[in-house]
Amino acid sequence: MKLQKGVTLVELMVTVSIIAIILAFVAPSIQSILIKNRIVAEINETSSLIQYARHHAIDEQAQVVVCPSKDFAICSTDWNDPKIVFIDDDDNAIRGNTEELLVTIGATTSNSIMTNTTDIIKFAETGEANLGTEILLCHKDGNAEYARSLSVTLQGRVKMSTDSDKNGINENAAGTELSC
User: Fold this and answer.
1) How far apart are CA 93 and CA 60, in angstroms?
2) Torsion angle, alpha carbons of 112, 115, 120, 125, to 10
3) Are 43 and 36 in contact (CB under 8 A)?
4) Rg of the chain taking only CA atoms, in angstroms
5) pLDDT exceeds 70 at position 61
6) Which of 34, 68, 111, 156 has the smallest number of CB atoms closer than 10 Å to its CB?
7) Three-state secondary structure along the chain?
8) Cβ-based neighbour number of residue 32 at 10 Å
9) Cβ proximity of 84 and 72 under 8 Å
């Protein structure tokens, strides 16, 4: 009797079939998890940037601006651009040669869309914001399940959206479900 040193074609086909069936059920949920994690990472990065700007305004007793900017000098209105934080000594929302660039983050990924209710966020020396604002981050497919938001109050506090009613869609600080 000879010892077998491999697998038969039937055994190989059964194994491949089992793997294909498992992947058919697991792959969609893995993609959903990856999209959610990327969106959460981007909103956390933006939240950190805004909180840094507020704390720096308080620590340095200066007006600090957070805004999107393609050239890292002039604020734009497209929140998908890179974001910058700088001390705005002359209160013109343009980073001059003498105004220090404090920190930047990159542009929003190509799969995400970020919008804001205001063009720029200014923090006074007391940490107060010039306007209350809401930043909304959505996946490009517009599915509300992936949407996340940041609310900046007039007091300068930053609050991230939560799913308080556990229906799979986050609500903003006012309790309204997010929609893209």
Assistant:
1) 18
2) -80
3) no
4) 23
5) yes
6) 34
7) CCCCCCCCHHHHHHHHHHHHHHHHHHHHHHHHHHHHHHHHHHHHHHHHHHHHHHHHHHHHCCCEEEEECCCCCECCCCCCCCEEEEECCCCCCECCCCCCEEEEECCCCCCEEEEECCCCEEECCCCCECCCEEEEEEECCCCHHHCEEEEECCCCCEEECECCCCCCCCECCCCCECCC
8) 13
9) yes
For the stretch 142-179, pLDDT in tens is 999 999 999 999 999 999 999 999 898 999 988 899 99
- Take residue 127 and report the two structure tokens written for it: 């940490």
CATH number of 11-59+109-160: 3.55.40.10
CA max distance for the chain: 92
With a CB cutoff of 8 Å and minimum separation 6, the contacts of 123 are: 53, 54, 56, 57, 58, 63, 64, 65, 66, 129, 130, 156
Q: What is the pLDDT of residues 63-85, one digit of tens each?
A: 999 999 999 889 999 999 999 99
Contact predicate 84/100, CB 8 Å: no
pLDDT of residue 1: 65
Q: How far apart are CA 77 and CA 9, in angstroms?
A: 61
How many angstroms separate the CA atoms of 129 and 11, rounded?
A: 66
AA letter at 128 = E
Q: How many CB atoms lie within 10 A of CB 1?
A: 3
